[in-house]
From TrEMBL:
Start and end residues of each PB1 domain: 149-231
Top-rank taxon: Eukaryota
Organism: Mikania micrantha (bitter vine)
GO molecular-function terms, A-Z: DNA-binding transcription factor activity
Pfam family, one: PB1
The protein's name in its UniProt record: PB1 domain-containing protein
PANTHER family referenced in this protein's UniProt entry, alphabetically: PROTEIN NLP8
């Protein structure tokens, strides 16, 4: 893929603060592949040495192997996005997170082949990068490219909401559910989040481990269907 396409996307991206966009290009080597920043587009919002230093630190991950039967360092968020094929974020809610990060896989051939990963690195971490994900998704679509995220569809009574699950944690899930349905904080003890597992059984999600089990049960799907049940006596 022509790097100028990624450059055009970066130039049209609207930053909400001081940060940079980096592009990790996928390089195929035989039956294996890796990601590299070397010679790839890089767009900082300003001439801050910290933004360039961050990119230089990331360069040490260039040419690390990614893919099937490969264990990716969980701290390398771009590698994790490439390995799992979906977008991830790290925010001010994450422990000891000094930078805000959003990593978005880039697909060609109508979403069939991974071309690389766009990383948004923010000098001050924000609370959520869902709006930035949607902005990048739209910019990619405008260039006949695509991205993927884990999409959650939640139904409560007669209403259904849909949003990207960029942080894999029950707190982030609950925050999105309560604020989108109720526009305020609610007593979480009065509500249950459930989904139907692969065996057809209703299963409750009440912890990070439950959510991880739900994701593992997706069977290569990028969409989770959940339901909210009001249970005041729980």
């Amino acid at each position: 893929m022509d790097s100028k396409v990624i450059e055009n996307i970066m130039k049209r991206f609207h930053f909400n603060g001081s940060g940079s966009l980096l592009y990790w290009q996928r390089i195929q080597v035989g039956n294996k592949w890796c990601l590299t920043l070397e010679g790839q587009p890089f767009l900082p919002t300003a001439d801050r040495k910290e933004l360039k230093q961050y990119r230089n630190r990331c360069l040490k991950h260039s040419n690390y192997w990614v893919g099937q039967n490969t264990k990716v360092d969980q701290e390398w968020l771009a590698g994790l996005a490439a390995q799992e094929g979906i977008a991830y974020q790290r925010t001010s809610r994450d422990h000891d997170q000094f930078w805000g990060q959003l990593v978005v896989p880039v697909y060609i051939d109508k979403g069939k082949k991974l071309a690389g990963v766009i990383e948004l690195a923010m000098y001050h971490p924000g609370e959520d990068y869902a709006a930035d994900y949607l902005q990048l998704s739209n910019l990619l679509e405008g260039e006949n490219l695509a991205t993927k995220a884990l999409i959650v569809k939640v139904t409560y009574e007669n209403d259904t909401i849909k949003f990207p699950l960029l942080s894999i944690g029950i707190e982030y899930l609950w925050e999105n559910v309560t604020m989108r349905f109720f526009k305020r904080s609610v007593n979480q003890q009065a509500f249950l989040i459930k989904y139907v597992n692969r065996s057809g059984n209703w299963t409750m999600i009440s912890s990070d481990d439950d959510l991880q089990a739900c994701i593992a049960d997706l069977n290569n799907s990028f969409q989770i269907r959940m339901f909210i049940e009001y249970s005041p006596y729980t």
